[in-house]
Every structure is written in C-alpha cells, then in structure tokens.
Amino acid sequence: MVKCVTASVAGGLVYFVLGWIIYGMLIPPDPNAAAEPALWAIALGSLFLGAVLALVLSWRGTTGAGDAFKASAGFGVLLGLAVGFSLMGMMEAEPNTWIVLRDAVIGALMYGVVGIVVAQLLGGGEGATDG
C-alpha cells in the first residue's frame, strides 16, 4: 500500500512537471484555454493520473521500464484520443483534429515516462526486468 501511494504521488508530480514544461513553456497557449489555469486543479488531476497508472501497472505486475513505458503510453494515447474527441465535440470553437492528435502523441510520451517512474517505485528496483 505504501509503495502504491508513493508511486502515485511521484507519478503525479512527474506528470505535472512534464505538463508544465511541455504545455507551459514549449507549446504556444491554446486561444480557447482559460486565461489563468487553475494550477490546484491541474495538480490534483495529475495526482489522480499517477494513482490510475499505479493501479493499472500494479494489476499488470509491471516493474520493468520497457514494459511500463509501452503499457502506459498505450493507455495514454487511448485516453487522450477518447477525451480529446469527446471535448472537441462539446466545444463551441471550431474543432481541430490536429490538436487532438498532437495531444494524444504528447500524452503517450508523458504517460510512458510517468509509467517508468511508477513501475520502478512499485517494483522497488528489485529484480525489475523489461518486458
């Protein structure tokens, strides 16, 4: 239980920092986004994401970095496409399929990195193998 909580918090922190770097510094802001994002909400969402990946990877018994990256990236791209297209259908702005696809690719990379961190903490670094 302690490993799962630790992995959840660490994964959430890594996801938050990666998002801040990628979406806060590297990619120009979306004109449809809020003027000032609610950082507390983004941090809380990141924490829940870390918990979801910790739960999924623990169910799979994933401890190796390679397997964790593949599983988490696959999960991230599917979740990104599901949420992105759903939100696109509900927005008043002109739908932009390219943004959804871009975010799914970025999400896959972010989820993959977070998955490695989570799996390493869940495995405790003992006997971790790539799968």
Largest sheet: none
Query: How much helix, percentage-wise, in residues?
Result: over 70%
What string, H for helix and E for strand, traces the elements in order? HHHH
Specify Rg, calculated over alpha carbons. Answer: 15 Å
Unreliable stretches, pLDDT < 50, 5 or more residues?
Answer: 127-131
Mean pLDDT: 87
Distance between the termini: 24 Å
By secondary-structure content and strand pairing, the structural class works out as mainly alpha
Portion of residues in beta strands equals under 5%
Report on the structure:
The chain has 131 residues and is mainly alpha-helical. The chain has one domain. 76% of the residues lie in helices and 0% in strands. α1 runs antiparallel to α4 and α2 packs across α4. The two termini are 24 Å apart. The C terminus is likely disordered.
List its salient traits.
mainly alpha; disordered C terminus; single chain; 4 helices; 0% strand; 131 residues
Q: Could you write a compact summary of the structure shown?
A:
The protein is an all-alpha fold.
Per-chain topology:
Elements (H helix, E strand, L loop, with lengths): L1 H25 L12 H22 L4 H26 L6 H27 L8
